[in-house]
Design brief:
The protein is mainly beta and 108 residues long. It has a single domain, classed as Nucleic acid-binding proteins (OB fold (Dihydrolipoamide Acetyltransferase, E2P)), CATH 2.40.50. Helix content is 5%, strand content 43%. The protein contains 1 helix and 9 strands, in the order αβββββββββ. The two termini are 23 Å apart.
C-alpha cells in the first residue's frame, strides 16, 4: 500500500504541450505528447485523450500531470509523466489551469 512518503517523490505540475501526434502503435487511440515543464525540460506522455481533442489543437494547451515516475514505454514510446483528466461517459476531459501559468508550476 502506498504511503505519504511515496507521494513526496512525485509532483503534480502544469506544463504546456509543444507537440502532439497520434500514437498509432497504441492498442487504444492515444496521442504522443511532448510537454514543456520549464526547469524539468520537455517530457513525454502517451495520453488516451482522443475523444475530445485532436493532435493539431493540443500544442499551446496547458495540462496538469504527475511527474517523478520512472519512465514507462507505451507502444514503443517513452512516457515520462501521467497527464491528468476526468473520465466521463464521453471520454477523458483534461484537467488544466483556467488561466496561463508558467510551465513547471507546482499544483497545490
Amino acid at each position: 500500500m502506498p504511503t505519504i512518503a511515496d507521494w513526496h517523490d512525485l509532483r503534480v505540475r502544469a506544463g504546456t504541450v509543444v507537440r502532439a501526434e497520434p500514437n498509432t502503435a497504441a492498442h487504444h487511440p492515444a496521442f504522443r505528447l511532448w510537454i514543456d515543464f520549464g526547469d524539468l525540460g520537455v517530457l513525454q506522455s502517451s495520453a488516451k485523450i482522443t475523444d475530445h481533442y485532436d493532435a493539431d489543437s493540443l500544442p499551446g494547451t496547458q495540462v496538469v500531470a504527475v511527474t517523478g515516475f520512472d519512465p514507462l514505454h507505451v507502444a514503443g514510446f517513452r512516457s515520462d509523466v501521467l497527464v491528468l483528466g476526468v473520465i466521463t461517459d464521453g471520454g477523458v476531459v483534461l484537467l488544466r489551469p483556467d488561466r496561463p501559468v508558467a510551465p513547471g508550476s507546482t499544483v497545490a
